[in-house]
Specification:
There is one protein chain. This protein is an alpha+beta fold. 57% of the residues lie in helices and 19% in strands. It has a four-stranded mixed sheet, sandwiched between helices. A two-stranded antiparallel ribbon has the order 5-6. It is globular and about 50 Å long.
Length: 180
Amino acid sequence: MKLIELIEFMGRFFEKEKVDYFIFGATAMNFWAPPRNTVDLDAVVAVDKRRGVAFLDQLRKSKFPITKDQSRKFFEGRIVQIPLGDTQLDLKICKTRHEREALARARSFDHPNYRLRIASPEDLVLFKLQAWRRQDQADLERLVQHRKDLDLTYIRSWLGPIEEGTGFPMAQRWDEFRKA
């Protein structure tokens, strides 16, 4: 499967399964800043345990090779990586206050054949600060450079709560990024 096929499939699948979700990561970044290559689709889904089991079962029926170990990790709130040919689906269950807020703030983008709900630029900044790999830092730079309308007050308001929940030095990372 190619990334564009995965995007189209998941856009239709989320709607058919009536699952609330948002896309984050590099694919979402490509909606808000000049695109870069990526091979995966990152999604956060809002499901309870019962609905989550049914959701994963439907993905399995659609030939997604989800293992029992991946299911367990998914329900623990960890990202599970599901390889699919030339691409990969990275799934995470919506668990934290910030993820629920990002879900509420996600914006819909309509394609003639499907709809995608994409994390807002501000929430992408917060997810990139959490991941903090070199590519995430480069994505942050690209996003901030091309989105002059970022709500910096919103970003700052979440640094402390996310730091408390994750232990990641969010404020330090943000300050370091802003000074660079």
